[in-house]
Design brief:
This protein is an alpha/beta fold. Helices cover 39% and strands 18% of the residues. It is globular. The chain starts with a helix and ends in a 5-residue tail after the last strand.
């Protein structure tokens, strides 16, 4: 969305193609797209309503194609063997010419590459995850996608320097462009800088994600509450997976009244909604070799909102936090007592907490915001004349 917004604002004609998979996301998608200046074309694979049959047939096609690919290793099967909506997105992508076709995610790369070849256009790829290093991915198929299509790309971008280094080691390609997963400053418009915010007796810890569920480090935060004064609360924003909220409350025990689950909100309101909170929790797991190299939007969101940051010591987060040590601290994942010990310093010293919040606020505006990254991204398209077709990107997003 940030890239599409930026290209449209720069005067280019932008078309985004995507597939829909999550029924609950429909109203949120509509709200996100209401004021965009680019076109969207979608294929509906939601498992209910009019799209139910397509979703069932698509899953069957994917299973068959994946099995056949594993046996014969034919690259012609890639658009069918990885990604539920590959053929449908390909028909959309090929239907109109463009100067650039930009893929977001591995499932979209064969789609964008084929369309780019059809229209003799340039190809770009935003590598959102190092999926060849992810345990739950079909690694041979992902490697085949990267080996076939990455050399065709005019540019490849990643979300962190460590991801860029790893990708360049895996494939003979130029160093990828690093575009941090940051937000534009306008999403914090109207917020008070931390030094101007009123003092609060309560210290509110904040975490957000699409899903409140296992494997996200939330157990660290809940366990830490038992080591912290009653003036500390834990607020979690997202959709709780089945039974998980009850597990967290059981873990919290007598402190469960200090754990609050908040509903998801519109994307463009996420940053402003953080103003009442004190400390942002970036609890990524270091044992996930793929994910630990990146820096998620959580950490950067906390910076933009002016929250102090408590983060697990993953390689990606360490690299960012080392540049802004005054904004927060790192702790070893799984060490709830260590987390509580560091948080307690801020609970007892509110001036130090306010200083960390201000350091976050300042770092976002000086370096870690889309307003800075945007210039690096748009420089890729500088030779293009304005008002020409620029983007027809495939996406495996809802």
């Amino acid at each position: 969305m940030r890239e599409a917004d930026s290209l449209a604002e720069a005067g280019h004609e932008v078309r985004v193609i995507a597939s829909k998979h999550l029924s609950w996301a429909g109203p949120r998608d509509e709200a996100l797209l209401r004021h965009r200046r680019w076109r969207v074309q979608t294929v509906d694979f939601r498992p209910d309503g009019a799209s139910r049959l397509r979703a069932v047939l698509g899953r069957g096609r994917l299973r068959v194609a994946s099995a056949v690919y594993q046996r014969f290793q034919s690259t012609a099967l890639i658009p069918y063997a990885y990604g539920l909506a590959g053929p449908e997105l390909l028909r959309l992508a090929r239907s109109e010419p463009a100067d650039w076709f930009i893929a977001h995610g591995h499932a979209a790369l064969p789609v964008a590459a084929t369309a780019a070849a059809r229209w003799q256009a340039r190809l770009g790829f935003d590598c959102e995850d190092l999926l060849t290093h992810a345990a739950n991915e079909p690694r041979e198929l992902v490697r085949a996608i990267e080996a076939k299509y990455l050399p065709q790309c005019a540019y490849v971008s990643t979300a962190s320097p460590l991801m860029a280094e790893r990708l360049a080691l895996d494939h003979p390609i130029p160093p990828p462009l690093v575009l941090y997963n940051v937000f534009p400053l306008e999403q914090a418009e109207g917020m008070l800088a931390p030094r101007r915010r009123p003092n609060d007796l309560v210290v509110r810890l904040h975490w957000f994600g699409q899903t409140i569920g296992p494997g996200r480090g939330l157990e660290d935060a809940v366990s830490a509450l038992a080591e912290l004064p009653v003036a500390v609360e834990l607020h979690l924003r997202g959709m709780a997976s089945a039974g998980y909220r009850e597990k967290l409350e059981a873990l919290a025990g007598s402190e469960r009244h200090r754990v609050f689950c908040l509903p998801p909100i519109e994307h463009d309101e996420v940053i402003r909604a953080m103003e009442p909170f004190s400390i942002g929790l970036a609890l990524e797991r270091p044992e996930n070799g793929n994910y630990s190299r990146t820096v998620t939007n959580k950490l950067f969101s906390y910076l933009l909102a002016g929250l102090a940051v408590a983060a697990t010591d993953t390689p990606g987060q360490r690299q960012v936090m080392s540049q802004i040590p005054g904004a927060g601290f790192l702790y070893s994942a799984g060490d709830a007592r260590g987390l509580a010990r560091e948080l307690l310093k801020w609970v007892r010293d509110r001036q130090a907490l306010r200083a960390a919040q201000q350091a976050s606020w300042d770092a976002a505006r000086a370096r870690f915001c889309w307003d800075r990254e945007r210039e690096k991204f748009l420089a890729l398209f500088a030779p293009l004349p304005a008002a020409e077709p620029v983007l027809a990107g495939g996406s495996k997003a809802s």
